[in-house]
Design brief:
Length: about 350
Amino acid sequence: MKNDLFLRALKGEKVDRPPVWMMRQAGRYLPDFMKIKRKYDFFTRCQTPELATEITLMPINQVGPDAAIIFSDILVVLQAMGIKVEMKDNIGPWINSPIRKNDDIKKVRVPEVKAELDYVFKAIKMSKKELNENVPLIGFAGSPWTLLCYAVQGSGSKDFNLAKEFCFSQSEYSKILLQKITETTISYLKEQVNSGVNAIQIFDSWGGLLSPIDYEVFSWKYIDQIIKELSPLIPVIVFGKGCWFHLNEMSKSKVSAIGIDWTCSARNARYLTGGKITLQGNLDPSKLLSPIYEIKKSVKNMIDEFGKDNYIVNLGHGILPNTPVDNAKAFIDSVKEYNS
Ligand code: CP3
């Protein structure tokens, strides 16, 4: 690997400067992405390895992060399990027949991922080839809880009230669904590893909607199974949005790094995780809308606070579609210019 900064940070090795990448870096802030988006609908882009590869490489060539993330979506796992998911313009994910009762769960299958998600594995192999060992490739999956949120709610939501109602009123059934998603996700991620990804990230985007006690029961219990199966094979990063309350527990698992959102200070994150484990984050994505000199100042401060070692620079959540490309590039460049 020509640029192995990201992999070295995951191992906890000393580096001259921390590596940097951005969650959702292959997305709508890139004009070339928007050109492809006008021609092909969302899941066609995910299902066509040539398109997925082109999009995966786009941020690497245009803004220069130290790692690529495969272009796909967390929701492809639900599709593979037999749940019909659409991506509607201006609405986002949409499921016509959401999962609301035991009969629905019975119909959800644990699929043969090799067949159902072959297009992802092809896209990974093709992207690896195109990346030509310049930077590592990150694979990913949503956490079982976050996928349940969409499967039950049927769309995006501020509070996923129907998903929570389902878990609290039909707790035994919700656990059957969570376990099916967990099993599918484990074989899906193992196959991503076989296809060549260099690290994986688990996105628990909606973990912060749960109380600390419910987080353990409905989210962490399943993420932990995934970590136990995958960490012997590959570095695992876990990102729980709004889950600062679980950082201590997370740091006791076998993960290589933990993602932090912008509501938790570097100091608090280091304190809660015991000071040694690699942390990733945590600039508020909205800060990329500041003038470039402010972005540079924020990045320098952030690295000073987290420390250059055991650290991966990132945003605290996905990059916003209205981010100017120059600002995204300034974010990446200021990390490359860092010297303590
Ligand atoms: O660059 C990358 O990070 C790789 C690609 C990627 C996408 N989705 C592409 C995408 C990744 C890693 C995801 C993860 C994802 N998808 C998450 C977890 C991360 C997070 O943001 O919390 C979640 C919750 C989803 C579900 C999802 N997919 C939503 C809610 C939406 C619509 C709203 C939105 O943020 O755009 C999507 C659509 C989606 N996934 C787009 C992209 C580039 C935009 C739609 C389009 O291009 O047509």
